[in-house]
């Protein structure tokens, strides 16, 4: 998948542990993948099922997934580009808690129990609390947002999400004047998320936004897609969607949201700081060390298309970064 040959960091900088922390392409290039394939993603039982059953059989049955209340009106932010088919959105995933292959999450994430589920909101807020996911859904009506999604691996999709603006939740808990950032945490439960039994990443997965990014109206907490409850492989029951940033900012299966004064640590930045920054704004002018970000492949299409600054949302968000060097703050 990489367009460029990997420029190797000096060997003095690379420890064996660090080799684990690279994206799958790198793990494979380094010849380590064969050794880890059987264990990452939970064990041999996966391998038994894996290669015999056709992927079609892992597409969630849209007739069985609970429907969400119809979205209210259409969003001014919707793209009218062709939506990526439901089958692709739900079988081509990154969710390393369930394995490294794109279709591992669809095969394996059904074991995650998404009810009961609570989300704790704490830190620099006047009203810290732990809320049941169904209570959250009563507080905030869901909207449909048809957004582009661009992974740092240079593929993209168009996904009709159902969710509510993160800003609504932040308002409700009343941030203090010290709240400058928002930190997010995925569930930590190696029994349900077998990928967490291996040191592929520093578990649990964590992410963060600056508070002005978090309350921007484009920033969504998604609870569904295509009008249906979010399939587990897409981050049920609650995941972040920040359409102008690379997909890895869209943390899945969130259990905690903490408002902080300091910039919080983020998983891919911890794993490989010179490759993945805190900001991770989609930027065709700043290449990833191992592949160009100038173009992308829309899943389901053959030819590549140019990547747009801020993933095509510059008009809405470029002003958040006025005066910032986006090459430094990648
Ligand atoms: N907890 C968790 N969240 C995650 C990931 C992950 O491995 N674990 N992968 C990220 C990456 S790299 C991408 S591109 C998107 C993929 O979202 P999708 O599978 O719904 O398309 O989820 C992001 N959120
Ligand atoms: Mo990604």
For this structure, the CATH topology is Sulfite Oxidase, Chain A, domain 2
Order of helices and strands: HHHHHHEEHEEHEEHEEEEHEEH
How much strand content do the residues show? 15-25%
Give the CA-based shape. Answer: globular
Tell me which CATH architecture applies here. Answer: Alpha-Beta Complex
User: What is bound: which ligands?
Assistant: the ligand Nc1nc2c(c(=O)[nH]1)N[C@H]1C(S)=C(S)[C@@H](COP(=O)(O)O)O[C@H]1N2, molybdenum atom
Biggest sheet statistics: 7 strands, mixed
CATH class: Alpha Beta
Instruction: Specify the helix fraction band.
Output: 10-25%
Gyration radius, in Å = 19 Å
Which structural class do you get from the secondary structure elements?
alpha+beta
Q: Which blocks of ≥5 consecutive residues have pLDDT under 50?
A: 1-20, 26-49
User: What's the pLDDT, averaged over the residues?
Assistant: 88
List how many beta strands DSSP finds. 12
């Amino acid at each position: 998948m990489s367009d460029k040959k990997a420029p190797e960091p000096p060997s003095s900088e690379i420890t064996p542990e660090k080799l684990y922390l690279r994206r799958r392409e790198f793990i494979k290039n380094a010849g380590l993948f064969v050794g880890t394939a059987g264990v990452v993603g939970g064990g041999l039982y996966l391998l038994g099922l894996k290669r015999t059953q056709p992927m079609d059989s892992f597409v969630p049955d849209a007739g069985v997934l609970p429907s969400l209340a119809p979205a209210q009106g259409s969003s001014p932010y919707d793209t009218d580009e062709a939506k990526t088919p439901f089958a692709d959105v739900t079988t081509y995933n990154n969710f390393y808690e369930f394995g490294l292959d794109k279709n591992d999450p669809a095969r394996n994430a059904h074991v995650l129990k998404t009810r009961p589920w609570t989300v704790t909101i704490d830190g620099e807020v006047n009203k810290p609390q732990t809320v049941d996911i169904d209570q959250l859904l009563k507080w905030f009506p869901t909207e449909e947002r048809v957004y582009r999604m661009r992974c740092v691996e240079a593929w993209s999709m168009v996904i009709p999400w159902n969710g509510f603006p993160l800003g609504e939740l932040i308002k409700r808990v009343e941030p203090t004047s010290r709240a400058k950032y928002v930190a997010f945490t995925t569930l930590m439960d190696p029994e349900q998320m077998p990928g967490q039994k291996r040191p592929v990443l520093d578990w649990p997965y964590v992410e963060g936004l600056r508070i002005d990014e978090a309350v921007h109206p484009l920033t969504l907490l998604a609870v569904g897609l295509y009008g249906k409850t979010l399939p587990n492989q897409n981050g049920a029951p609650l995941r972040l969607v920040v359409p102008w940033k690379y997909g890895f900012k869209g943390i899945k299966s969130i259990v905690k949201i903490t408002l902080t004064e300091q910039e919080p640590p983020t998983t891919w930045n911890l794993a490989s700081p010179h490759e993945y920054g805190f900001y991770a704004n989609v930027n065709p002018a700043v290449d990833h060390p191992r592949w160009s970000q100038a173009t992308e492949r829309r899943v389901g299409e053959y030819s590549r298309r140019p990547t747009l600054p801020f993933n095509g949302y510059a008009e809405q968000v470029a002003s958040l970064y006025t005066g910032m060097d986006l090459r430094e703050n990648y």
